[in-house]
Predict the structure.
Amino acid sequence: MKHKIDKKKWYSFKLFLFVLPFIVLVLMFSYYPLYGWLYAFYDYRPPRPFSEAEFVGFKWFKSLVENPIKVAQLWQVLKNTFVMSGITLGTSWIPMLFAVFLNEINCVPFRKFVQTVTTLPNFISWVLVYSVAFSFFNSTGMVNSFLISAGLIKEPILFLQASDHVWLTQWLWLTWKNLGWAAIMYIAAISSIDGELFQAAKVDGATRMQMIRYITIPSLLPTFFVLLMMNIGNFLSNGMEQYYVFQNAFNKEYIQVLDLYVYNLAMGSGSYSVSVALSMLKSIISVVLLVIANTVSKLTRGESFL
């Protein structure tokens, strides 16, 4: 009996060893950086060492709202963040729909080709995405050259410098880059649906659209709601790389989201302590949004995702 208990303990210990590297990675890259929150309470100015910085308490938090110009700028940044995150959240059903119709393609080689082509952009850096955009939509790029040579326009259109539709264009680039990758989880969920349901529907004379409506989509809704709730928790975190490479003097007012604003504060003006204070508030609000989303999930679906 004792030998069986020792064997069971040893097996549990081996399983723990498999998980240990991931625990270390989470501690290193998710929890250890929280030490940097101390900068928000000190007057840190590089290249002085942090040990010589003066403790100022909540000075930098107050500075975010004490100046009308800063308040107006912060409001515009929050507006950009909420609009871009709202568009992404409101169109989060598109990958699910894409996965559904991709699954309906009977030609397997063509289906794999479409899935591969739509997934590959996810592994391309935003710098290369901007290079593609620059080649196509620059004032001397392919699109303007074609339009001018065809006599449709006389002056090149400044696609990348325009600020009128920057929210929409950034969403289109994000969708192009992430659509195939975001659909993978739904494709996996579709493959786990019991095939007998479809066979029974065929026997009852259901069309393909009816099977999609009454079998496929209802089976995907639990996955969709879990991903939706997690996206709500990350509502203020819509990334920096995309907007950093696409920003310029003409569209900066409308493209500068919260993450990019924090980066520009730290690297552009050297306001490290202010940027840490702002990112700290963002993290706290994100946690609150995550808890609210989890509570809503409990009340509406009867189960949480945390």
Remarks:
- The chain has a mean pLDDT of 85.
- The CA atoms of residues 166 and 172 lie 10 Å apart.
- Residues 2-31 form the longest helix (30 residues).
- The radius of gyration is 25 Å.
